[in-house]
C-alpha cells in the first residue's frame, strides 16, 4: 500500500543553492530522518503539519512557520508526518561556500541546532504566487533567487554566525557553559553576575565576549530561547498563562508584549486547544 503520493520539484536559484518544492498527500504515517550534514537548511511549511525532533528538542511544525536547521555529522533531524493530510513545503539548502559568501565570509557555529520562526505574511504570499504562477527561464531563476535570499535574511537565528574575534579554547568552553545553561533551562531566573561566575569571567568580559562569539547579547539569547519554548507550548495546546510561566515569564502581560514584538502577532493566535 502506498504511503504517500504527489510531486516534488527541484530548483537551483543560484550557485550553491538548492530549492525543493514538495506537494504530497500523506496516506499513512511517514517517518523520515536526515543524516546528511548541512551548514544551513530552511524549511517552510505552507500547508500541513509534522512533528520534528533534533536531539532532545521537539516541536510541532505547522503551516505558516519555518525552520532553520544546522546539522552536524553526528546528529540527524527526525520528522513524523501524520496521515490523511496534504503537505506543501519548500526546503532551501545552501552549501558552505555559498553560505559563507552570503554571510560576508563568516562561517556558522559548529554543531546542530534548529530555530523555528513565523513566516512573514508578505513573504508567504510571494512564495505562493511563485508556485501557482511560475515564471520561465531566467526570470524564474531570478525570482527564486530573490525569494531564497529573503528566506535566508529572515531565517538566520541569533548566534548562528561564528565569531571573528580571537577567543582561546578555554574561553570558548566557558562561554559554551553559559549558552548551554540558558538553552537547557530558559525558565530559570538569571543575573549577569551569576552567569559571569559560571563562566569564570567578570560581568563586563562575559557581556563583551558572548556578544562577539554568538552575535547577540546574553539576555537577547535567553529571550529568544524563552519565546521559542513558549511558542511551541502554545502550538501543543497549552494556554497563554501556562506557556508564559513555563518559559520563565512572571507576568503574562510582559510575555504577551515580548511575543508580539518578536513574531508580530499576539500569543493567543497561536493557542490551539488540545
UniProtKB/TrEMBL annotation:
SMART domains per record: HTH_ARAC
UniProt keyword terms in alphabetical order: Transcription, Transcription regulation
Cited Pfam families: HTH_18
Domain HTH araC/xylS-type: 176-273
Transmembrane segments annotated in the record for this chain: none
Protein name as it appears in the record: Helix-turn-helix transcriptional regulator
Species whose genome carries this gene: Halomonas sulfidivorans
Lineage: Bacteria, Pseudomonadati, Pseudomonadota, Gammaproteobacteria, Oceanospirillales
Amino acid at each position: 500500500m502506498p504511503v504517500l503520493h504527489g510531486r516534488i520539484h527541484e530548483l537551483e536559484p543560484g550557485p550553491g543553492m538548492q530549492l525543493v518544492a514538495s506537494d504530497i498527500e500523506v496516506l499513512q504515517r511517514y517517518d523520515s530522518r536526515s543524516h546528511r550534514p548541512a551548514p544551513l537548511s530552511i524549511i517552510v511549511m505552507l500547508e500541513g503539519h509534522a512533528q520534528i525532533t533534533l536531539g532532545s528538542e521537539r516541536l510541532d511544525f505547522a503551516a505558516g512557520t519555518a525552520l532553520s536547521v544546522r546539522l552536524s555529522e553526528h546528529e540527524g533531524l527526525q520528522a513524523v508526518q501524520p496521515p490523511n493530510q496534504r503537505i506543501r513545503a519548500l526546503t532551501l539548502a545552501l552549501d558552505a561556500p555559498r553560505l559563507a559568501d552570503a554571510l560576508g565570509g563568516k562561517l556558522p557555529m559548529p554543531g546542530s541546532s534548529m530555530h523555528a520562526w513565523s513566516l512573514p505574511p508578505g513573504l508567504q504570499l510571494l512564495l505562493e504566487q511563485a508556485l501557482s504562477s511560475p515564471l520561465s527561464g531566467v526570470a524564474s531563476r531570478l525570482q527564486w533567487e530573490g525569494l531564497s535570499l529573503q528566506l535566508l535574511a529572515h531565517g538566520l537565528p541569533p548566534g548562528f554566525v561564528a565569531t571573528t574575534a580571537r577567543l582561546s579554547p578555554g574561553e570558548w568552553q566557558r562561554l559554551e557553559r553559559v549558552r548551554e545553561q540558558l538553552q537547557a533551562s530558559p525558565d530559570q531566573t538569571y543575573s549577569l553576575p551569576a552567569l559571569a561566575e559560571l563562566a569564570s569571567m567578570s560581568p563586563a568580559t562575559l557581556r563583551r565576549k558572548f556578544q562577539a562569539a554568538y552575535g547577540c547579547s546574553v539576555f537577547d539569547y535567553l529571550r529568544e530561547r524563552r519565546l521559542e519554548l513558549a511558542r511551541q507550548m502554545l502550538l501543543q495546546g497549552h494556554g497563554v498563562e501556562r506557556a508564559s510561566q513555563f518559559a520563565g515569564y512572571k507576568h503574562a502581560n510582559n510575555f504577551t508584549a515580548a511575543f508580539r514584538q518578536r513574531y508580530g502577532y499576539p500569543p493567543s493566535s497561536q493557542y490551539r486547544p488540545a
